[in-house]
Amino acid sequence: MNMTAMNIRLRSAKDLYSDALFARADLIREQGLNATVQKETKSLQGHGFFDGFAGLCNASKTNLYSEKKLATLFNTLATSSGVIALNTFSPVAASSTNDLHEQQDNLIIEPKHRMLGAGRFEMTAVTIDAENFRYHIPLLGFDDDILETSALHPDAPLIHSLSALMSASNHDYIHQLTDPSSYVGHKKKPLLQWREERLLGGDSVHSYENWHILAHAKILQTYREASGFDRVEVLAQSFLNELEGYSRDIAKSGLSAQKQHDVVDYFGLVGAQALMAVMPLDDPRLTSYLERLEKIDPQPNRVWDDIKRLEFLNLAPEASQEATRNAINKITPSDKDLNAALSHYKEIGNAVQTRENGDLGYLNLKRLQLAASNPKTAHVHSPDIPSALEKVFSLKTDLSKANKAVELSLRPLVDTLYTIRNLPA
Fold first, then answer.
1. Is the pLDDT of residue 25 over 80?
2. Separation of CA 40 from chain center
3. Which of 123, 203, 328, 416 has the fewest CB atoms within 10 Å, i.e. the most exposed one?
4. Which pLDDT does position 190 carry in this prediction?
5. In 3-state terms, what secondary structure has residue 50?
6. Tell me, what's the pLDDT at 98?
7. Are the CB atoms for 123 and 138 separated by under 8 Å?
8. Which residues contact 336 (CB under 8 A, 6 or more apart)?
9. What is the tens place of the pLDDT at every residue in 409-422?
């Protein structure tokens, strides 16, 4: 990182990141639908997403789909419908997501406010209409003050590696394959029927959106088991390498110890969101990630101050560690998903409140921060999901593992794809 650049601010971070987004949007518009779809298909293939998906399909129906056939299906649906959902995130300032929603009303979903340590974080997607096609760009909304303090350019290696990690955990490509709007005529009916009969809408943990979260996690697992390559883990360690170097750099920048912690901790928690999207809170890979983040953070003990920002703990900034411990071990959040996730982890002995060496530790507090930042995802990956999926998908099998439940839950989709005729071989 160029440390001189850290002290030079010719334009606001918000403007720099917005310019980068608009430049990407213009490039996509210029290259056109076919080239955009081909490039996206190749990127998804390179990530192993279609390989993993094909592995799941073939586990249910022998040789139903190959990696090549699913790639062709994705390509065909996007070009025939004139709509493509891109899977690679673009970083922007969090305030920009609100601007896009309020001024242009072209966001797919309204930004959802999350707090990660000292800053806010939002994920959404923007819809852009070109001359003969429409495309969706997923957005990472970084806290404006954190971006200004960090002085990180949109092309900085840390931002690039973080965006790559978040993109690997993104499931938008499955929307392209399963959204009825991607299909024409009678081919819509099987998917519409599947969604109406099997899935619930709205904020239910059994919703269409949460099914995609579980499906993508299983696709990544299938690819990892078949290839021996864990893409998310590799990208997570690559990002932490960048964060570690950045942490060393800002120690020489003149920023206060508090500011150094706020920035490193914030980006570390954003990266942890990617892992949380595809694995449980107690997964060894997420634990390893958090253990390394603790070593990278210049002031890891400030986690005790960060945790007091969680509103449901109802703690004053000056609250003692003893008062904080007591509040954490007695929490009953009003958010039903957070409450369910924490209670189910507790039932199997892996609560975020679990004491380490007789006391609450960094890992406990970080897991609680993560669960509180995204309760729905924490619940989706929590240990109660096997029984929940059994009800949603009307399964009679005794399910003991979440990954088995996810595998079975994919079968309605596999059957649906099988019924869609006249697709390319």
1. yes
2. 19
3. 203
4. 59
5. helix
6. 73
7. yes
8. none
9. 455 555 555 444 33
Q: Are 28 and 85 in contact (CB under 8 A)?
A: no
- The answer to whether residues 200 and 206 touch, using CB atoms and an 8 Å cutoff, is yes
In angstroms, the Cα distances linking 143 to 114, 148, 150, 229 are 10, 9, 10, 33
Q: Coil, strand, or helix at residue 320?
A: coil
Q: Distance between CA atoms of 173 and 130, rounded to whole angstroms?
A: 20
Each residue of 246-279: pLDDT tens digit?
999 999 988 999 999 999 999 999 999 999 999 9
Q: Residue 91 carries which side chain, given as an amino acid letter?
A: P
Task: Give 113's contacts (C-beta < 8 A, 6+ positions apart).
Answer: 120, 122
Query: Of 119, 144, 159, 109, which Cα lies nearest the Cα of 369?
Result: 119
User: How many residues are given for the chain?
Assistant: 425
Pairing of strands 114-116, 119-129: antiparallel
Q: Using CA atoms, how far apart are residues 105 and 94, in angstroms rounded to an integer?
A: 16
Please report, for residues 110, 334, 404, the alpha-carbon distance to residue 91 in angstroms, rounded to integers and kept in the order given: 17, 31, 35
Structure tokens at 152: 């990180």
**Confidence at residue 73, expressed as pLDDT on a 0 to 100 scale:** 81
Read off the tokens for 419. Answer: 């019924």
DSSP state of 107: B
Q: Is the Cβ–Cβ distance between 84 and 133 less than 8 Å? A: yes
418: left (phi over 0), alpha (psi -120 to 50) or beta: alpha
The tokens of 177 are what?
Answer: 């394959």
Instruction: Give CA–CA dist 315/210, Å, rounded.
Output: 32
Both tokens of 267, joined, read 């980006």
